[in-house]
Amino acid sequence: MKAIKHFRTITKHKYYVMKLCFRFGLYKQGLKHDLSKYSWCEFSTGAKYYLGYKSPNSNERDQIGYSSAWLHHKGRNKHHWEYWIDFTSKGIITIEMPIKYVVEMFCDRVAATMVYQGDNFDFTAPLDYYNKTRFYYIINEKTDYIIKDMLTHLANTNLDETVEYIKRTYLSK
Question: Which InterPro entries match (predicted)?
Fold first, then answer.
């Protein structure tokens, strides 16, 4: 039963992200978003640790100290800031994310919050979650600024206005 519930959750999330990506003209990203979640490695772990109100990756991390599904996922999905970290002789470096992936990250965060909060969703929730978890991120400074700007605009207005703002400010260049 948890496998069916997990399937419904990730599919609903994928659908929401796809709809948002399409509003930005990011059709290929919308269609391909999070396909790795359907791989056995990620899906079986997601079903095992499924709770329904938060990511199974968080639950797995709470239970065993890390998330095997997340380690698989982040290396295959460019809309995650973790994908853009590298190691050099000077240590860890962060790479600025191409704007199309920052926009997909915005869509991902909004959709995830919509799915997990359901009827309790409001436009401040994605920014609240970002700010709650931001302190441990190793994210490029410019990427951080841009995603915070997008989420802050959403928190202060609504989705329609924010979509237009992002198109005008970040995608028309």
Answer: DUF5662
Number of domains in the chain: 1
**Cα dist from 32 to 65, 72, 91, whole Å:** 29, 16, 32
At 45-57, the pLDDT tens digits run 999 999 988 899 9
Which residues, in sequence order, are CB contacts of 65 under 8 Å at separation 6+?
none
Alpha-carbon distance of 35 to 157, in angstroms, equals 31
Please answer whether residues 54 and 116 qualify as being in contact, where contact means their C-beta atoms are separated by less than 8 angstroms. yes
Structural domain for 78, as ranges: 2-171
Separation CA 66–CA 59 (nearest Å): 9
pTM of the predicted structure, to 2 decimals:
0.95
pLDDT in tens, 59-108: 999 999 999 999 999 999 999 999 999 999 999 999 999 999 999 999 99
Q: Rounded to an integer, what distance in angstroms lies between the CA atom of residue 73 and that of residue 40?
A: 12
* Rounded Cα distance, 106 and 114, in Å: 12
